[in-house]
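Sat 14:20. Reprocessing the chain from the morning session after the first attempt stalled halfway. Input below, unchanged.
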Amino acid sequence: MHTASPVGINPRNHDDMIIPAVNGVSFVVQAAAKHGIKRIVITSSVAAISCRIPEEDDHEYDESSWTDLPAAEHSAYIKSKTLAERAAWDIQKKLVAEG
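Finished this time. Tokens:
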């Protein structure tokens, strides 16, 4: 799945983009779990990993690579994509722990 984030000009209140993005992915993952779906493939966004503190030229990205939100002022869109994907992973970990 690839859930959308609101797109448009950068709002004054970044939560106007972040909350719908996080809620959207959360609702989809929780609904899938409720209906017995055992596996979801999430198609990420480059925004979730691309805005990082510069790494070495040969840096390899993996599941621990995330946009560094506190490092600089990012757009609401970049924040929304990063936080939505992190929410999906957090929900997955919680569901696995619950059994």
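Residues 53 and 71 are 7 Å apart (CA to CA).
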